[in-house]
C-alpha cells in the first residue's frame, strides 16, 4: 500500500523553478511508493494554515519553496499532534537550511530522491515569543533586513547578488542597540550591532559557521552577538573574522543556549527565517528539542 505525501508548493519561489522536471519528480515519488497530493500557496502564512488543517492525514509532509516556505510548514507542524515526517525540495534564493543539510538546491528530481532515500533526523525548532516559531534563525541588527527588504523582482533577477547589494546599501544607516541579554549561562549588557539565535551553519547563503559548532538536534541554539566595533574598520575586522571562520574577534560572541531573552530601550525590528518578524522591546527565544523528524 502506498504512503501518502502532502506536497505544499510555493509557486513564486525560485523564479517558479519548481516547474522544471516537476513531472519527473512526481514520477520519482510515485515509483518510490508515495501518492502525492498537491497544495499551492497563494500568500503569506498559507503554508502554515494548510499544514495545520491537513498534515495529520499524511505520512509525510514536504514543501517546494525557499526557507520562508519551510519555516511556515514547520510552524504548522508544531501545532499538529504527532506530526508526520518532513521533507524539503529547496527552491529559493538563499536556501540556508538546504546548505546546512546538504540537500540539492533548485533540483526537484534530486530533492525528491532524497525524500525517498534520506534518513529522518530529530530536528530542533526555534520558538519566538508566544506561539511563533522559526526554522533556523531569528535576528536583529546589521543586514537582517536584507532578505525581506530586497524587492522580489530583484531576488529573481540577481539572486545572491541582490542580498549583497542591499547589505552594502545599509552601511550608512547601521545602528547600534543598547541590549540586555539573559541566556542559560548568564547575562550580557552591551551595545550590539547584531544579535540572534540560530540552528544553522549557513546564514543568507554567505556566512558559514563551522559544522562542529552546530548540532541540529541537541536542544541547543547558537547565540551570536556582535558588539559595537566603533568604526568602519572595526566592521571590516569582524567580517574578516567571520568569513575566514576564525571567529576570533573580541567583538564577536558565539555561545550555546536553550533560551535567551533580549530587552531594549526602544522597539527593535527582528527577522525570522529571512522574513519580517515584528518590533519588540522585550522578546524571549527558545529551542524546542526535536519536535519533528526532518528527512535529509
Estimated structural class: alpha+beta
Which regions contain 5 or more consecutive residues with pLDDT less than 50?
Answer: none
Please tally the helical runs, counting DSSP H or I stretches of 4 or more residues.
9
Largest sheet: 9 strands, antiparallel
In what range is the share of β-strand residues?
35-45%
Order of helices and strands: EHEHEHEHHEEEHHHEEEEEHEEE
Overall 3D geometry? Answer: elongated
Distance between the termini: 23 Å
Helical amount:
25-40%
Let me know the number of strands: 15
Spatial extent as radius of gyration: 19 Å
Mean pLDDT: 88
Structure explained in plain terms:
By secondary structure, the protein is of the alpha+beta class. The chain has helices at 22-31, 46-54, 67-77, 96-101, 108-117, 146-149, 152-158, 160-170, 232-243, and strands at residues 3-9, 34-40, 60-65, 85-90, 120-128, 133-134, 137-141, 177-183, 186-198, 202-203, 207-208, 221-227, 252-257, 259-272, 275-295. Helix 7 packs across helix 8. The chain is elongated and about 60 Å long. The model has no long low-confidence stretch (mean pLDDT 88).
Amino acid at each position: 500500500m502506498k504512503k501518502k505525501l502532502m506536497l505544499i508548493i510555493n509557486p513564486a519561489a525560485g523564479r517558479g523553478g519548481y516547474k522544471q522536471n516537476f513531472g519527473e519528480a512526481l514520477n520519482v515519488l510515485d515509483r518510490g511508493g508515495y501518492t502525492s497530493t498537491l497544495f499551492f500557496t497563494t500568500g503569506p502564512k498559507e503554508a502554515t494554515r494548510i499544514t495545520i488543517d491537513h498534515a495529520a492525514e499524511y505520512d509525510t509532509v514536504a514543501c517546494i519553496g525557499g526557507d520562508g516556505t519551510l519555516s511556515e510548514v514547520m510552524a504548522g507542524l508544531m501545532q499538529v499532534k504527532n506530526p508526520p515526517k518532513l521533507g524539503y525540495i529547496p527552491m529559493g534564493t538563499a536556501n540556508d537550511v538546504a546548505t546546512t543539510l546538504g540537500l540539492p538546491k533548485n533540483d526537484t528530481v534530486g530533492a525528491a530522491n532524497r525524500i525517498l532515500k534520506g534518513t529522518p533526523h530529530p530536528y530542533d525548532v526555534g520558538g519566538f515569543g508566544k506561539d511563533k516559531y522559526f526554522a533556523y534563525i531569528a535576528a536583529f541588527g546589521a543586514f537582517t533586513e536584507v532578505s525581506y527588504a530586497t524587492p522580489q523582482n530583484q531576488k529573481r533577477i540577481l539572486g545572491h547578488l541582490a542580498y549583497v547589494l542591499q547589505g552594502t546599501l545599509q552601511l550608512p544607516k547601521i545602528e547600534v542597540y543598547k541590549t540586555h541579554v539573559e541566556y542559560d549561562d548568564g547575562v550580557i549588557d552591551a551595545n550590539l550591532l547584531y544579535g540572534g539565535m540560530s540552528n544553522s551553519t549557513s546564514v543568507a547563503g554567505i556566512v558559514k559557521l563551522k559544522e562542529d559548532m552546530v548540532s541540529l538536534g541537541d536542544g541547543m541554539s547558537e547565540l551570536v552577538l556582535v558588539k559595537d566595533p566603533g568604526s568602519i574598520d572595526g566592521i571590516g575586522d569582524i567580517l574578516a573574522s567571520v568569513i575566514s571562520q576564525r571567529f576570533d574577534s573580541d567583538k564577536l560572541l558565539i555561545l550555546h543556549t536553550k533560551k535567551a531573552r533580549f530587552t531594549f530601550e526602544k522597539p527593535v525590528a527582528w527577522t525570522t527565517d529571512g522574513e519580517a518578524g515584528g518590533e519588540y522591546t522585550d522578546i524571549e527565544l527558545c529551542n524546542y528539542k526535536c519536535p519533528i523528524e526532518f528527512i535529509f
